[in-house]
TrEMBL record:
It comes from Pseudalgibacter alginicilyticus. It comes from the Bacteria. This is Outer membrane protein beta-barrel domain-containing protein. The lineage of its organism: Bacteria, Pseudomonadati, Bacteroidota, Flavobacteriia, Flavobacteriales. InterPro entries: Beta-barrel_OMP_2 (IPR025665). Residues 30-207 form the Outer membrane protein beta-barrel domain.
């Protein structure tokens, strides 16, 4: 009986080991970092005219999904392509107004002579992030270090310029000088869910028709904040 039982146990152990190895290989072969992401940033105006200054707290909020495509066998390098939504606001002292002919004008609000409680422009975008991704994750590890760097293209589908103060209350949603296509470089780095995030805009917020005191407004976006990745 003992002689018969030993080969049976040996066969069972072999089959169990083989099945475990097959499961591991199957998990590895399917391992991806498809992720939902959400984040917020503090928005800065980069390369702004000397007279322009920011006031209050300018914010950005982001939400979307990224498809992960591993590039190597270990799957710690990959390309990520996503689709998301973003909303951004910029509180500053550059007034965007219209004259009697509906032409857009840009001027600086003088705090010493004009009192106002709100002056900002905001945007809502559909975004396409493209990331080159490095991480220390495995098929069974969910807390890991990551560095994601890449490029983001955004399309502004709605925008608003608001003013409330001594000059009246007005809001515009048809600023033709706005560049509806925005693009820039991105960097996200951190551990587990919490990640530092940076966006550096490469093109101007306004096109060449937007001028302040006869000079083109070559402002770009610079955003610093946190990004959360959720499997």
């Amino acid at each position: 009986m003992k002689k018969t039982l030993f080969p049976i146990l040996l066969i069972i152990c072999y089959q169990w080991t083989f099945s475990q190895d097959t499961i591991t290989k199957k998990i590895d072969s399917l391992y991806k970092e498809d992720q939902f992401y959400a984040g917020f940033t503090y928005n800065l105006l980069n390369n702004k005219p000397e007279e322009v200054s920011q006031s209050g707290f300018s914010t950005g909020f982001y939400l979307g999904f990224i498809k992960d495509m591993p590039l190597n066998k270990r799957r710690n390098f990959s390309i990520g392509i996503g689709l998301g939504y973003a909303t951004n606001s910029f509180n500053q002292n550059m007034l965007i107004s219209k004259d009697i002919n509906e032409n857009i004008n840009y001027s600086i609000l003088d705090d010493s002579s004009v009192s106002y409680s709100r002056n900002k422009f905001s945007t809502n975008l559909i975004e396409l992030p493209i990331e080159f991704r490095w991480r220390t994750s495995t098929a069974t590890t969910y807390d890991f270090w990551r560095i994601y760097t890449g490029f983001k293209l955004g399309y502004i589908f709605t925008h608003t310029a608001k003013y409330k103060g001594d000059l009246g209350n007005f809001k515009y949603k048809d600023i033709t000088d706005l560049n509806v296509l925005q693009y820039g470089l991105t960097l996200s780095a951190g551990y587990s869910t919490w990640n530092f995030h940076l966006y550096y805009g490469l093109n101007n917020i306004f096109n060449n028709d937007a001028t302040l005191n006869g000079e083109q407004i070559n402002m770009k976006e610079l955003k610093i904040g946190l990004m959360f990745y959720i499997l």
